[in-house]
Amino acid sequence: MIRFFVYGIPVLLVALLVASFVTVASFSTDRKNELTIGSIGEPTKLNPIQSAESGASEVEGFVFEALLQYDANLEITTQLAKSFTLSQTTTVFFQDPAAAAAALQLVEAARPSWSAWSLQAARTDGQRLLLDLTLPGMEASAKIFSLFDPKTALPLATLRVETEKARATLEDFQKANPDIAIERSWFDYDAAFEITVAGEGTSVEERLKKFLTGTGNAQATAAVSETRNFLAEPLVHFVLRDDVRWHDGAPFTSRDVAFTYRAIMDETVASPRKPDFDLIQKIETPNPYEALVTYRKPYSPALNSWMMPLIPAHILEDKPASWWADNFNRNPIGTGPFKFSRWKTNESLRLVRNDDYYQGPPWLEGIVFRYLPDPISIRLAFMTRQTDFWGVSPWAVSSLLNDSRFQIFRYPANSYEYVGWNLRNPLFQDVRVRTAFAHAVNGPQMIEFILYGNGVQSNGIFPPHFWFSNPEIKPIPYDPAAAARLLDEAGWKPGPDGIRVKDGKRMAFTLIVNQANEVRKDIATLVQDNLRSLGVEVNVEIYEWAVFISRFINKLEFEATVLGWSTGPDFDVYQVWHSSQSNPEQLNFVGYKNPRVDTLIEQIRQEYNPATIKAMAGEIQKLIFEDQPYLFLFVPNSTSVIWKDSFRICRPDGKGGFMDTPVEVTKAGWTYYMQWFYRPEFAGKLPPKREVRP
Amino acid sequence: MITFIVRRLLISLVLVFFISLISFFIITLTPGSPYPWGELNPKISESVKANFRKQFHLDEPIWKQYWFNMRGLFTGELRSIKDGRPVLERITERLPATLALNVCAIVIALSFGLLVGVYSARVAGQWQDTALSTVSFALLAIPEFWVAYLLIIGLTEWFAVPLMGTVSHGIVFPNALASSLDWIWHLALPATLLALGSVAAQSRYVRASMLETLREDYIRTARAKGLPSEKVLYHHALRNSLRPVITGIGGLLPALIGGAVIIETIFAYPGIGRLGYQAVLERDYPTLVALNFITAVLVLLGNLLADILYSLVDPRVRLE
């Protein structure tokens, strides 16, 4: 008996191990008609309005759909919307109806200019003059406003009140002050409200403050946040597709659009998408296939926010956030080409073909995401054909280029790496010093050493492949002599130990970088080395990410740091570059301040004309580049590898037929046509081809 | 005996309270705070951040946060900051995988530990014993992650066998036997690596204890009676040499549920160790609080169990 324990069990275990090894090693290479992706970033919740990480959007992109999307060239096109049109209503307030009528006559008299202003119609409503414009923006409205006698027009004041129970507070205030005409109201969760009234707003502010103290609400604040000459309210009119169904069979309608917006604005949902939707005044749904979105002011990046996937009202409405977390977020229902099937946390997530997809079922039976902890396991899983796709680190690319087993896709990433100088520090306040550093760092060599050539030098805040990026800006060339000259000019002369000195102060600083990022640690080393030969002492310090952010970056207590930005093709850089965003916890942590850039950043958000946007974005990029608040380093390439000939694409050619091509890379990446991928060995067993309705 | 257990349980209660208190402060006072929106997301406004802190009580004083966490832990309402799901659910859904891995590792550790220990004792002083000792000490000294990577790279380079996770992906399994052997294969490697250190340690305990027993008078008496040496070895000597193994089982209790961070991460194994590791990186306080609490309770229970087992197998020990 006891001898069996001593000898029998080990023998049994070894036998089992050998048997399982033999079985696993003998598995045939028959693959399912599926695509398996190895990924490090596992989603936390599969709910597009509650998740903000790339791992989640990777999955959500197949399950959910949005009103708008990027096409293969990263230009905006429709998805669940059939079409959309932009327009604007501008409202001007006058002292009395007579003044409004007089203003209307002035507008009527200027009829020849109407088309230049894109003005369609003008009418009065009591003291108000309403102008319907086909193009949103401030410029035309400002021109029309200049026709009027400013003494007869009333300004419009917006007041912001921060208080607990904002909704109830505003209701009580209105009851107590029925004589105050509130033109617009808007709630920031239940924690604040904004109201717009005609006039300077100072008297309303007084009465609000009195009311708040009267109700014992000591912590509440009220202040005029903005005064405008007129209200410019853009309108987006979406016409929706009428042939779309959710995965449970319920039809997709405008109710889902309105619900998604309401959910985002709900504090219990805690959506990170809310800032994109803060400027919406209201959403109206006159019928199931139309949605009208009214904005509080012109804000052109708002259109991009409708690329956010929509969630189903018939499932989620009236359910608490905990129900979302326990049910929907791990078992999502969307309208996309693939349906959610199963999620084993920390292991894999499986999507299956949606046979009722309105463009016809996708060719693949399923997509499987495998969640692996690090780049090594991703590589091993790919090499043992456990996954079909490998996102390769830059340093591994060159060894694959000539390997005939693979097909390789390379495209520029939507990101750039930089060294940020804390401009509050006297050392970095001289632009000559910052430019000297840029000359001293050998950019091409850095790309060669760190990325093995897989990247381009950055020429400012927008990667060169964005449509509004300025191609005239050239990266600062590597020129140690020019760097030395600039530092000499700025008064930094070499000291006895080789380190430059000015007014008895040595040119030495600490460069901080975060722990887990190999690329950034390498950058720090090269910068340290390059600057040492210029006579600058750089101490590199490495911290864990959370410590790095909370102790140094958020508190603005650093001298220089290596970081990077990942961004969509978004020209709105307010959070990163506007001078108002340079306080602790904000993202202009280098403390960049340039009044001209501030103005441009404010203006570009109100501009809808692509040509003007391109010109303004180009100027913003140029001005910031000249100031060198960052040392702009490089835009890396993304590299993806698949096994050669493991997939083909058969996609609609736009003329009613289909075209069969190898897998190819688009500006939007190589997965753009995923719904039309198939394995060649399954070519005869695919679902029947269906005509694709545009 | 009963009074001893009751007294130990009462002491444990006080201990658990202090452990939970100290570990909570260590967790929350670590620099950094939860930031569930990727890296430095420009789109996140102040009101979104403030609302997030409010939803998870992060804007409250720390003693109040402790109270909320502990209350939530006992009512089952404690939710993870990461995905909003109850933490107990997040932990229990990983239990099967973790239990399978650790039970497997313990079986390997005990059985091979016994085998090697008994064998070393039989050949004590000969070259085989010296060789096994060297290997054992080497296994104790070499970090397991290093062995793990060598093994993984070797297996994938030479045999191209699937590793990582709990099952192979994208292949059509011919039958149920193949898929269960596939599961066993994915379990075997991490379990073996997890057990390597314990095999070495266990075998040392068994060897020492066995050699000590073999020098006892009653063994000499048994031999003098003319009993076959096999019978003396396995029947008389081994039984009494098992004491360190049996009492050691109590110490294995926390390891049964507690995760193996390194091995689980290397093998992409979806166990509790990886959950805890990710929770640390993400500053997911509720999950960490729950994991720490469960581990503390298991360690204390394991110690108690070890003491009780010891008194059962060794009559010389009395629990008062």
Topology of helices and strands:
The complex is a heterodimer of chains A (694) and B (320).
Chain A: H1 2-25, E1 34-39, H2 54-63, E2 68-70, E3 76-78, E4 81-94, H3 97-109, H4 114-117, E5 119-125, E6 128-133, H5 139-145, E7 153-154, E8 156-162, H6 166-176, E9 182-188, E10 192-198, H7 202-214, E11 221-228, E12 231-240, H8 254-264, H9 274-277, E13 280-287, E14 290-295, H10 313-316, H11 321-326, E15 338-344, E16 348-353, E17 366-371, H12 375-383, E18 389-392, H13 394-397, E19 406-412, E20 415-421, H14 431-440, H15 443-451, E21 455-457, H16 480-489, E22 493-494, E23 500-502, E24 505-506, E25 508-514, H17 518-532, E26 537-543, H18 545-553, E27 560-566, H19 574-577, H20 595-604, H21 610-627, E28 630-643, E29 648-652, E30 658-662, E31 677-678
Parallel strand pairs in A: 1-17, 25-26, 25-27
Antiparallel strand pairs in A: 2-3, 4-6, 4-7, 4-12, 5-6, 8-10, 8-11, 9-10, 12-14, 13-14, 15-16, 16-17, 18-28, 19-28, 20-27, 20-28, 21-28, 22-23, 23-24, 29-30, 29-31
Chain B: H1 2-29, H2 46-55, H3 62-75, H4 87-92, H5 95-122, H6 127-141, H7 144-158, H8 176-214, H9 217-224, H10 229-241, H11 243-257, H12 261-266, H13 272-282, H14 285-313
Helix pairs in contact in B: 1-14, 5-6, 5-8, 5-11, 6-8, 7-8, 8-10, 11-14, 13-14
Shape of chain B: globular
Query: How many DSSP-defined strands of chain A?
Result: 31
Structural class of chain B: mainly alpha
The multimeric state of the shown protein is heterodimer
Q: What is the second-level CATH architecture of the largest domain in chain A?
A: Roll
Task: Find the count of extended strands of chain B (DSSP E, 2+ residues).
Answer: 0
Please give the largest β-sheet of chain A. Answer: 8 strands, mixed
- CATH names the topology of the domain at 94-281 in chain B as MetI-like fold
Round the mean pLDDT of chain B to the nearest integer and report it: 85
Low-confidence spans of chain A: pLDDT under 50, at least 5 residues?
A: none
Largest interface: A-B, 88 and 79 residues
Taken as a percent bin, the fraction of beta residues of chain A is 25-35%
Helix content range of chain A: 25-40%
Kindly estimate the percentage of residues of chain B that lie in beta strands according to DSSP. under 5%
> Low-confidence parts of chain B, pLDDT < 50 over ≥5 residues?
none
CA radius of gyration of chain A: 30 Å
Helix content range of the residues of chain B, please?
over 70%
The figure for the number of domains of chain A is 3
The CATH topology of the largest domain in chain A is given as: Dipeptide-binding Protein, domain 3
Question: Which word captures the global form of chain A?
Answer: globular
Name the structural class of chain A: alpha+beta
